[in-house]
Design brief:
alpha/beta; 5-stranded mixed beta sheet; two-stranded parallel sheet
């Protein structure tokens, strides 16, 4: 298992990401696939799909120890 960091997660997430007029995003289907893959690839992280106060759904990966956010990606579709 790899040690999680912002650069390593950004690199790992590249195949799952798409781009639209607002920037980087992830489809709902890819977010569900990425959930399992992140847990199997990285140590001491937790991730999930949540909804922001503004109503936007996001895919978030955080440190299990410090709660630091490694990545937060907007979900589309």
């Amino acid at each position: 298992m790899l040690k999680a960091s912002t650069p390593s997660l950004e690199k790992f997430m590249q195949p799952y990401l798409s781009t639209d007029e607002f920037g980087a995003c992830i489809t709902d289907e890819n977010a569900k696939k990425a959930l399992n893959d992140v847990f199997s690839e990285f140590d001491n992280v937790y991730c999930g799909i949540s909804e922001e106060k503004t109503g936007i759904r996001v895919f978030v990966v955080k440190s299990a120890k410090t709660r630091k956010t490694f990545c937060k990606i907007r979900i589309v579709g």
